[in-house]
Amino acid sequence: MLLRHRMGHGDEVLVFHPLNRNGMVIVCFFYGFAHRLFSMETAFLICCVNYVLDAVISLASMASNVYVQDLSDNADEVKTTISTGVSINHLVSIFIALCGGWIWETLGIETLFIVSAVLGLGNSAYARQHGRDVACGHATPKACEAG
Questions:
Q1: What is the H or E stretch that residue 104 is in?
Q2: pLDDT tens, residue by residue, 45-69
Q3: What's the average model confidence in pLDDT over 66-91?
Q4: Less Cβ around it within 10 Å: N or C end of the chain?
Q5: How many domains does the chain have?
Q6: d(CA 99, CA 123)
């Protein structure tokens, strides 16, 4: 699903919102359980489709860069915010990969993708709540109230 979002500066930006907040849960479910629910040939095709959906969902990070540019006061703030975000994402990705490998080896692939789905839901819940805070274009609810 492709949504149009009107930014404060008047430009229209197209933002991919493929399966909304439930998309990652669906992808994780089929990654983790396709081999148990379907024949190997069908499970392989489902995993191929999941790979594409996962890549489309990952494009959402590009949309966050657009929002950072819209909310920032200057180019230095944009650079600092995006580089900090990339650094934090990198650290979390390494940690999650190590934990994921351990979970896969000790508890199985199904548990790994259940944990992934739960992390995705938590991330979506946090982003949704934080999105309400910055909906007016300010970083905090008090700044929104002040105008």
A1: helix 75-107
A2: 999 998 988 888 777 667 777 778 8
A3: 85
A4: C
A5: 1
A6: 17
